[in-house]
Design a protein that fits this description.
Layout lengths: L1 E3 L5 H14 L4 E4 L6 E6 L2 H7 L10 E10 L7 H11 L10 E5 L10 H17 L13 E8 L2 E7 L24 H11 L3 H7 L5 E5 L5 H8 L3 E5 L6 H5 L3 E4 L12 E6 L5 H13 L3 E9 L5 H16 L3 E6 L7 E8 L1
Parallel strand pairs: 5-6, 8-9, 8-11, 9-10, 11-12
Antiparallel strand pairs: 1-3, 1-4, 2-3, 4-7, 6-7, 12-14, 13-14
């Protein structure tokens, strides 16, 4: 397996993959270097491991791939022939089917970012060659497996494949979101990404309806309130600090100056979102209280992680939240592209 991650969080992803595989009695080990922005997990049966560790369950992975080949010493005058030869070698019993698309990428690391130009130009040359050789469909087909060519250097690339149903739909696992001119803060991008990444498309119509009611704890200056308002919700924004005046002009936002850790609603709400800077276990406990007491049905919140033992803290906080909520929940958590030293959690009743 080959998984992308945020640069600097390779140890956390390696620890997550290792622990999850061990709990499933699947032998293997993680291999990585700090700041290379990906982790390899090598095992005796990578296909079985990949099936046992679905992408939706992984927290620190931006993308999940099955590595096919590691090509070093590529000749810049002909990188295509070794790639096609490597595909034949990966399937000695014959090609299973043509790929539906090919993405030429590079890890999201400082060292690899200068390869962006090469990736773009090489992709244009590789596509017709793969189609001629029968490895790529004539028209992009999102239902078929996708081929990835990942450049680590001009003469070094890895080949991998992804299942469209078991991975990120964005190159490098990064959704391309733009900061809206009306957004009160850049934190709005975190919640927008969470809605795209953690809430499945078929769930959104049911979970977001006009005039549903939500609370935003620690709302100022109002980035998350703004996102929820744009989903059609009416929002109670809880913060002792000021909100952007335009939010109040909308008629959909009520600002209460109160402590987000102390305030509770007078009646049940549809949603509660929270992006407060606080110890992660304290946040997890408070979020569990909201679910357990029926103050909200659905929630999205951030857990700010410590500098050390971040995977251990993540696991402990999620276990604490699930245990203290005392209700069967669907829980999805991920370190989003717009997160930093934190993860984002979505929880909804099963």
């Amino acid at each position: 397996m080959l998984c992308y991650c945020r640069p600097g969080f390779e140890p956390e992803l390696a620890a997550e993959l290792s622990e999850r595989a061990a709990l499933l009695d699947l032998p293997g080990y993680a291999r990585t270097q700090r700041n290379q922005a990906y982790v390899e997990f090598l095992g005796t049966d990578a296909v079985a491991l990949s099936r046992a560790l679905p992408y939706d369950d992984l927290i620190f992975a931006r993308q999940k791939l099955l590595r096919l080949a590691d090509l070093q010493g590529l000749d810049p005058s002909d990188r295509i022939t070794p790639i096609i030869n490597a595909l034949h070698a990966a399937y000695p019993d014959g090609r299973p089917s043509a790929y539906g698309d090919v993405w030429v990428e590079h890890p999201d690391s400082d060292e690899a970012k200068p390869l962006a130009g090469l990736a773009r130009s090489f992709g244009n040359a590789l596509r017709p060659a793969l189609r001629k050789a029968g490895w790529l469909t004539r028209i992009d087909d999102p239902r078929r497996p996708r081929l990835h060519v990942i450049f680590l250097a001009g003469d070094h690339a890895m080949l991998a494949q992804a299942s469209p149903r078991d991975g990120s739909p964005w190159q490098l696992g990064i959704p391309r979101l733009r900061m809206h001119a009306d957004a009160p803060s850049r934190s709005a991008l975190k919640l927008e990404e969470a809605l795209l990444t953690l809430v499945h498309e078929h769930e959104r119509e049911k979970l977001f309806r006009d005039n549903m009611r939500a609370a935003d704890l620690g709302a100022a200056p109002g980035g998350w309130t703004w996102v929820m308002m744009r989903q059609g919700l009416r929002v109670i924004s809880i913060d002792n600090g000021p909100l952007r005046p335009e939010l109040l002009d909308s008629g959909r936002v009520e600002h209460l100056r109160a402590d987000g850790f102390q305030w509770q609603p007078k009646g049940p709400l549809d949603w509660m979102v929270c992006d407060m800077v606080e110890q992660p276990r304290r946040v997890a406990e408070r979020m569990a209280t909201w679910i357990r007491e029926g103050w909200c049905r659905h929630t999205i919140f951030n857990l700010k992680l410590p500098m050390k033992k971040r995977w251990e803290e993540t696991r402990l906080c999620l276990e604490l939240f699930e245990r203290q909520a005392e209700k069967p929940l669907t829980i999805r958590a991920r370190q989003l592209y717009h997160d930093r030293e934190e993860i984002t959690v979505f929880a909804t009743p099963q």
